[in-house]
Design brief:
265 residues; alpha/beta; Rossmann fold; N-(1-d-carboxylethyl)-l-norvaline Dehydrogenase, domain 2; 2 domains; 8-stranded mixed β-sheet; 48% helix; 15% strand; elongated; binds NADP nicotinamide-adenine-dinucleotide phosphate
Length: 265
């Protein structure tokens, strides 16, 4: 049973996962990182100890969660002698669990399919789906038990499917967020208060969650309204990158709804 954890990393995931585990009475033994200010702050929040020297890492934890960048996860794991034979997992969507296989025979993945930004609250921690993978049955069962104690759902998922899930998350969350940012920039440059977009965003998400994205599409591309699309492209004349994004997304909508075929028939 996992009762004590060392978290490696002091970024977005370390912050939120640490808070969630701490709230659920799982002991965070140590936080390892290289950023002393972030690490000591997180240490206070989690009632834990911050260390920035890998040789000081405790060998007493039931689980070690690597929540650093993909390259740092590997580099630190090979440098930490105390981690040999321990239960190691990382939180990445697109990294093999086997990065740990020369260090221990107990390793896996604990990938939370959620977007985390430090200091921005999570609406409901217990709604976070965790994708898990493990080197052996015992470790897998321990991860399942941990997630159940957090009150969350788990999904067993191998590397190939996890990479695809991650890709879908990049479209649904990261690219969507960037599109909203581009929209905010247009409003700012036109001196329009971005608050005007709030109701549109809420209704868009309501429709997606209620009916699915395919059924919810509106706008000039799905209507194949070339006059409007050309007016918009003209407004983006001085911004070739954003003009290209507008063109490509419109092309994608047209292709996915087979609009030209529909019009031809
Ligand atoms: N954020 C999300 O929404 C999210 C969701 C699910 C999964 N993930 C995955 O979780 C992992 C962490 O993501 P994140 O968003 O928390 O990243 P992040 O906020 O950028 O944090 C990365 C952490 O890694 C540390 N780090 C980088 N290189 C290091 C090194 N050489 N030695 C020691 N520490 C090092 C950083 O330290 P410094 O502060 O000193 O740079 C920081 O503490 C990634 O694998 C990511 O794919 C992220």
């Amino acid at each position: 049973m996992i009762n004590s954890i060392v978290i490696l990393g002091t970024g977005n995931v370390a912050f939120h996962l640490g808070k969630f585990l701490h709230t659920c009475n799982i002991k965070i033994l140590q936080i390892f990182g290289r950023n002393v200010i972030d690490g000591e702050n997180l240490g206070k929040i989690l009632n834990s100890y911050f260390i920035n020297d890998i040789s000081q890492i405790s060998d007493k934890a039931d689980l070690y969660i690597f929540a650093m960048t993909d390259t740092a996860n590997y580099d630190i794991a090979v440098k930490a002698n105390n981690l040999k034979g321990k239960f190691l997992v990382h939180t990445s969507g697109s990294l093999e669990s086997s990065i740990f296989k020369n260090i221990t025979d107990r390793y896996g993945v604990l990938y939370p399919f959620q977007t985390f930004t430090k200091n921005i609250e999570i609406l409901d921690y217990q709604k976070i789906p965790f994708c898990i993978e493990s080197s052996d049955k015992k470790s897998l069962n321990e991860l399942k038990d941990l997630i159940e104690r957090l009150g969350c759902k788990f999904y067993e998922m191998d590397y190939e499917r996890r990479k695809k899930l991650h890709l879908s998350g990049v479209f649904a969350s990261n690219f969507m967020n960037h599109c909203v940012y581009l929209a905010e920039k247009i409003l700012k440059n036109s001196e329009i208060d971005k608050e005007i977009m709030s109701s549109l965003l809420k209704q868009s998400f309501y429709k997606i969650l209620k009916n699915g994205a395919y059924q919810s599409q509106t706008g000039p591309a799905i209507r194949n309204d070339e006059i409007i699309m050309n007016k918009h492209l003209k407004l983006l004349e001085n911004n070739p990158l954003e003009k290209e994004i507008y063109k490509k997304l419109s092309e994608s909508i047209i292709a996915n709804y087979k609009i030209s075929k529909k019009n031809e028939s």
